[in-house]
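Task card 7
Instruction: Convert sequence to C-alpha cells.
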Amino acid sequence: MSALLSNTKNLWRRSVKLKDSPFVQGIDSSVELHPSQPVTFAVIGCGQRGKAYTKYALSYPERCKVVAIAEPRPQSQKLFAKLHKVDQTLVFDTWQDLHAASAETISTIGKRLADAVLIAVQDNLHLEATVAFAQQGYHILCEKPMATSVEDCINMENAIKKAGTIFGMGHVMRYSPYSKEISEIVRSGVLGELINVVHVEPIGYYHFAHSYVRGNWSTEKECSFSLMTKSCHDIDMLCHWLSPSTPVKVSSFGSLKHFRNASKPAAAGASTRCLDCPMEKDCEYSAKKIYLDPVSHGNAGWPVGTIVDGIPDIENVTAALRDGPYGKCVYESTNDVCDHQVVNLEFSNGSTASFTMVAFTSTICERQTRMHFAHGEIVGDMIKFTVSDFRKKTNKVYHPRNDGSGHGGGDLGLMRSFVEAVSAGKQELLGTSVEEVLKSHLTVFAAEASRKEGRVVDCEAFEREARNAFKCLEMPKDVFDESITKDTK
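Output:
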C-alpha cells in the first residue's frame, strides 16, 4: 500500500469540486477541474464495453485518461493495462480491491484515485459498485441498464442524488450524430407535433444466439429480462423524443418462441454441442460458423473476442466451444428470455409509440424508425434518414457522420459528453439526469409487468407504487465494508 500511496501522489494533479454531501466529507474538493486537464478514469470491467468506451481516451488523451483498472481475467487485465499504460500499482483484480485502495488514499491524503469511475461489469453488479464509488465522491458513468430490479434502480438514484456527483448512463443511442440530428429536428418543431413513433430493433439472429441464448444475458435469474438488458435505451430514446410528455400507459406482448428444445431440428439428434452435431454445417447458429471460422480467417473481434480471456486463437476458442456455454446447441441451452417482444406506449399528450425487439433478422442492431408528425415524417435506419415536409412537399435525405465507434458513434458520443460534463461540473451537458434515467427504466419494468400479467399498466401508478415501496430503503454503510471481501467473478 505504501508503494500505491507514493505513486498516486505523483498521478494526481487535481481533484473534483463536489456539492455538499454526507458521502464525501473529509475529501479535498477545493480544486476545480480545468478544461486543459484530462479527466481521469478508473475503469471497472475491461471487457467489450469497457474497451469500447475507453477508445475515446486513446483518441483524445488530452481530454481523458485511464489511470486505474479492475479486471479479474488475467490476460484481459494485462492487455488493457498495457494499452492504456496504467501503472501496475493501480491495476486490481476486483473492483472491491480498487475501492479499498481508494478508501485508503482518501483517508491518508484526502484525494480520490481518479475523477470518475466507468462501471462496465455485469448488470447485477452495477448497483453495488455504483453506490460504493458514489459514496467516495466519484463521478459515475455506468453501462446500461442501471440495475436489474426496480428496487436496485431506485437505490441507485438515491445514492447518486446523495453524492451530488455527475452521473452518466450507457444510453448511447442518445449521443450518436444520427440520433442527435433527429432530436434537433424534433425539438425545432419544423414538422409540427410528434404524434407517433414506430421503432424496431433488429437484434440479429447470431447476435441474439451469442448474447441471449448462450451468453451472459440468457437467463432472467442471472441477469434480467431481455427488454431491459437489450432495449432499455430504445425505450429511453422514445421517451426522449416525446419529452416533455411522459408515458402514461403501456402494454406488451412477447415470448421465448424459437430458442427452446421443442424447436430443435430432428436431424440434430441427441447432440448438445455444435462440434459434435451431424447437421452443424446446415445450422445458422453453428458455433463453428460464428466463432471458429472467423478466427481461422484472422478475425479476433466481436463476438469471438468475448468468449476467451485474451487474444482468441484456434486452440483457446476450440476449448471454449468444447467446454463452455458458447459451444452448446441453441436448442439445448438454459436460456429463458424473450426472443421477440412488442411494446405499445401512450404518452401524457396523447401521442403514441410502438417498439419491436426481434432476434430473427439479418441486420444487427440497425434500428429502423418511422416518426410521424402533424406536418411531416422522418424515416431512418441509423445510417441515414429522410425528412418529408408535407407543407413544402419536400424530401431531404441526411447522412450523419459516423466516427466508427459502436452504436452509430454513440459510444464515443457518450464519453465525449460525460467528459465535458465532468470538466465543467455540469450534469446538464449530458442532456439527462438520474431521475430521468430512472423514469425510463421504470417504463421498461412496467412494460415487462404488462407482458407477464396480461394487462395494460398505468405507468404513473407503477412509478408511484415503486417509489413508495422502496423510498425508505438505503444501502447501509456496513454493506460497503463487507463488500470489499466479495469476489466479482
